[in-house]
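A sample follows:
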Amino acid sequence: MANYEALLGELSPLSKNVKDAANTAVRLQKAIQKNTETGNLTEVKKSLAALGEAIALLQERTDALQDAVDAFDEQEYFVSGDFTQQLLEACAEKKVDVKGEKGVYEMFPYKVRILGDSEHPAEVYVDRKKVASYRPEYVAETIRQGQIRLNKATFNPSSFMEELAAAYEITCLRNGARIGSTQALGKIYKNLALMARARKEYDMQAFAFDLSRLFEAGTEAWKTKDGARYDFGTSRDGKTGIRVLSRTGVESFISTLRMMNDD
């Protein structure tokens, strides 16, 4: 089984060797420059000879590092499933909730895609952004840190509820339904982000994340400034509901919204 951590253990000392040889070459170059300026050609000649040896050592160590990197087949690492397995293990260790299978996962509120087969190069995407890493530990930590930042970000339940209520009313009107009827959150989302450009910038996952924070805020937050009260409908699976996750990892599927004032 391929494992990037094993490769890292091999590459780290080789990389340090390259760094040490490069530092020696730089130090000698500085000595040559200084002695050239002062006219000390004797030292210049000594440093030039030493620099030649340092450059040869640097090349030797660079070749060793190159060989170790080339020996690791990143495409096979992905195709074999080793990368995916180790990523899921790293997520479990970091308490990152994971749902999904076959290379498509939800790590709330992110969508993670793992590519790597005869038709696709080995790549990892978090939402639409490619993560330039073949190290599962790093990818898992990147996702965890992103979740921490999102949860720390300012969120105003009142403002979001006002926007959600406005989109709900538009949905009722478009469906020819009375205000107070039950409306699917998926349709409400489309009226909240009317333009395709808006849905690209504020996708369903971002909507689900805001819903999770509003849902977690409790029923007192499900009111608008004019006194209208709203209620969320939940489902037991992800087929009809939008999956949300609380800060403590409690999973819910929210499917509908309705105004409670009118019966």
